[in-house]
Amino acid sequence: MRSFSTLQLALGASIAVHAGLLTVRFVDPEGFNRVFQDTPLEVILVNAKSNDRPDKATAIAQASLAGGGEADKGRATTPLPPSALTEMGDAAEDAQRKVEALQQQQSLMLAQVKRLLAALPPADPKEASDNPEAQAREDKRRQLVKLLAEIERRVNEENARPKKRYISPATREEVYAVYYDGLRHKIEDRGTEHFPEMSGKKLYGELTMILTVNFDGRVVSTEVVDPSGSPALDRRAEAIARSAGPFGRFSDAMRRQADQIVVVSRFRFTRDETLETKLTGQ
Predict the structure, then answer these.
(1) What pTM was estimated for this model as a whole?
(2) pLDDT digits (tens, 9 = 90+) for 110-133
(3) By C-alpha distance, which of 171, 169, 191 is closest to 276?
(4) What is the bridge-based pairing of β-strands 164-167 and 260-269?
(5) The 3-state secondary structure of 63-115, one letter per residue
């Protein structure tokens, strides 16, 4: 210590004092307590940060992040984007049963309106037009006739449309299972025999296709709903499905339920140069 001058000792002491002051933070004790007592914020982890601090934070994290979004309430619990609802299992069968129930209710309503019309006495042109009961009866007749015409119009429109049956993995009817099995084998044999290629190179990949088959076995339409990433492969897959038909006429049991069947199937063109198809509920 004797080797240091008074000035050097004073500078050393000043540096030590200032360094100690820099480690001390003065805060309002009440305000510090409120952070933990009154603030209902969750503690979460974030994988990003921003230079701007949010005006009103909804959670505590290890970094400031000016969030955004369109949610009116709450916060997303997954980083994945929202996806469309997918119906699996018995969804197609339940929808079919609901349609059949509505059709039955419509038939009952049609019969009821006809009974009400038949119960009304025939119109009497000699009856005075100023008779309140006669006027009310004629008003009711006009309303029933209008309702009857509307119901019959809807019934005729529905009858004009082909009845479709959606074949899914949950379909239990044996007639549909047997028919689909034959359809699947024909498509797989066709795809394996005429494996897709372009410019002399084989095309591999997977895709999901909706195939609509008419009651006479004709392929009515094909639609790739989950592409393979190769437009050429998607086009060749549709061509294979169309050329594999016709698949045979529907049986009487099938015709009683549907004029067309709609099959959602996964097509997989493997490295073994074979086509594999799998029924899917998506």
Answers:
(1) 0.47
(2) 777 777 777 777 766 666 566 777
(3) 191
(4) parallel
(5) CCCCCCCCCCCCCCCCCCCCCCCCCCCCHHHHHHHHHHHHHHHHHHHHHHHHH
